[in-house]
Amino acid sequence: MAVLYQQISAYKSSSSSVFQFVRPQNPKRSTRWTTPSSAIVPNFHLPMRSFENKNRTFTDDIKSLRLITAIKTPYLPDGRFDLEAYDALVNMQIEDGAEGVIVGGTTGEGQLMSWDEHIMLIGHTINCFGSSIKVIGNTGSNSTREAVHATEQGFAVGMHAALHINPYYGKTSLEGMVAHFQSVLPMGPSIIYNVPSRTGQDIPPRVIYSIAESTNFAGIKECVGHDRVKEYTKNGISVWSGNDDECHDSRWDHGATGVISVTSNLVPSLMRELLFQGKNPSLNKKLLPLINWLFCEPNPIGINTALAQLGVIRPIFRLPYVPLPLAKRVEFVNIVKEIGRENFIGDKDVQVLEDDDFLLVGRY
Fold this sequence. Notes:
The chain contains 13 helices and twelve strands. By secondary structure, the protein is an alpha/beta fold.
């Protein structure tokens, strides 16, 4: 027998409406349906998840990671993924001590991928490197439906954890944020990502505290600053700094677990040293010019340019991203020499590259 929603008239005593399940008195009689003024429809969607324990990663495994690299996605001249170059980048991360990679994040240009490309790259990374490094798929979206579907697929192909953003552009209420995250957390270990400069909306602590009891909540990638990091760590919540220029102090002065880093694409061994071997203000100071250079324009413009200049990826950009101008490319060559070419990935000499060396792809 069909279940209908019927609104109980309670307007005289309350400004809110109450809803209950009722069954029609005569199921054979035609019923005229009137749309209620407001209703909460329960979610009958069952998570597409598996409890098979083989090769499963648990939330505590994710919470222990200190150095996670937001890995770059390189391209072929027609704009498709350059998997050979990608594999080389991941291998260099493993060799130099990174413990995890974010696949298809902002740095990896997930925002420029179709979901087919996105899930394929997560699956490829797991198949090739899943036994050597934790693979965290960026399956977040401003659409809860898309986030649910992509996260189901990501865990189905084997990713160890998910990264979830709060709904951006079409922003929601704080209660909506909680409902959004609660829709994806049942599927597996997840890191929440707070970056108001991109989303236009902060995830305040009360939202995080509302979801922190979930066994799949691993922690938060926090870009607001040290005070917010300290707020969470004193309450037992794992935090990864989302700001490379703050990660040293967040780690050693404010209790952060580690960093989800862009800079570690270039100097993973130095970033590992910064996070594992105690306070090192001199190394932190040494890296700051590189970090500031990387973020002189919105990420991933700087990292794309730098990796091309180091000769580890082809100088190909998916639009709307374009390389940094010539003066900035000259500046990067000088930064590499100052820090030491041996500390950067790859073995080719760093080059300035001419404007004509770069290929910009608008259709891919």
